[in-house]
Amino acid sequence: MLVDTGHHLQGTNIEHIVAILLDEGRLGGFHFNDRKYADDDLTVGAINPYQLFLIFAELVAGEEDPAQTVSQCAKACAYMFDQCPNHKPTIESVIQSAVVVQETWAKALLIDRAALKQSQDAHDLTQCEEILKDAYNTDVRPMLAEWRQNKGLDANPLAAFRRSGYLAKITAERTAKRGAVAATGAFG
Ligand SMILES: [Mn+2]
User: Average pLDDT, stretch 93-100?
Assistant: First the structure.
């Protein structure tokens, strides 16, 4: 089954749905996006990054689950972006999306699972929340910057893209191409 984060009624407990699907071995993939109004109208993590974190908390828990049907399902899960933020350049939105998913996944990996299990077993809801927020509030950006540099990539993908001038270049090329096509009367 595919979970599209924009396809639920406002306020739906999506992370709970994710946990159930993992438990049943039925989670096939994700369409990541965020929204304020309709489905898919905003970049993933733009509006509700904590919800995304809670979803990743379940995905990472699934990957670490001792039941093989659950861990295999979580590891095989396909991640996709399905979003059309009309007021932002598409490539920049996609770069933001990749970065936010990396950051959120890293934060979910930081959750102290043993402590969380202990607090869950003790029905200590306050402490469970504190444990999740400890991970969520950790600044993982320096770690990810180092990880990128170790791979020979720029530490800051969005800044690198803006420096490259690629968007201005292809915009100029496409505008010129459209002008040339229009001049031939190919548009009838
Ligand atoms: Mn979709």
Answer: 96
